[in-house]
Amino acid sequence: MSNSTGDKPSTPLHSVSVAGAVIREDGRMLVIKRRDNGNWEPPGGVLELDETPQEGVVREVLEETGIHVEVEQLTGVYKNMARGIVALVFRCKLSGGIEIPTSESVAVKWVTPEQVSERMTEAYAVRLLDALEVNVPRVRSHDGAQLISMK
To answer: What would the DSSP string read from start to end of 79-120?
Structure first.
């Protein structure tokens, strides 16, 4: 495949991020209110070049929430079609720490699945709700807010 000028092959550029669907024994899920945009989201961020996806999830959850986690399994792959971001979401279990706001989050809360749907856009809520499913991982695409149905 060549680029629009016909010179040489082009490779699409994507960003890879990771997020933790941290689920407590009582079924509540860990969420942050982001400092940069005020949105409620699962804790996560850009995967570093020198770390595995699982290492990235553990690091991001700790950096954003003060919570230590153990990664259990991949529960979904989500692509933001508008921005070229591919997010890998992993179900995690709490292994220690105390939830605290950080330089990246103004609030850290444990919420019910119903509260997830109320507080988050569909594109982010589904990442946590999919993690409750037995039949995972899921693969979904969205426009930054709403899911895009695949035909």
So the answer is: EETTTTEEEEEEEEEEEEE-----SSEEEEEEE-HHHHHHHS
Q: Does residue 101 have a cis peptide bond before it, meaning omega lies within 30 degrees of 0?
A: no
Q: What angle do CA 117, 143, 41 make, to 5 degrees?
A: 40
pTM of the complete model = 0.88
Q: State pLDDT tens for residues 16-59.
A: 999 999 999 999 999 999 999 999 999 999 999 999 999 999 99
**Residue carrying structure tokens 């921005």:** 83
For residue 118, count other CB atoms closer than 10 A to its CB. Answer: 11
Per-residue confidence (pLDDT) for residue 3, from 0 to 100: 45
Tallying the residues shown for the chain, one arrives at 151
Closest CA to 144 of 123, 126, 125: 123
**Which residue ranges in the chain fall short of pLDDT 70?**
1-9, 150-151
- Rounded-to-integer distance, Cα 122 and Cα 144, Å: 9
How far, in Å, CA of 75 to CA of 140, rounded?
A: 11
Report the 10 Å Cβ neighbour count for 94. 17
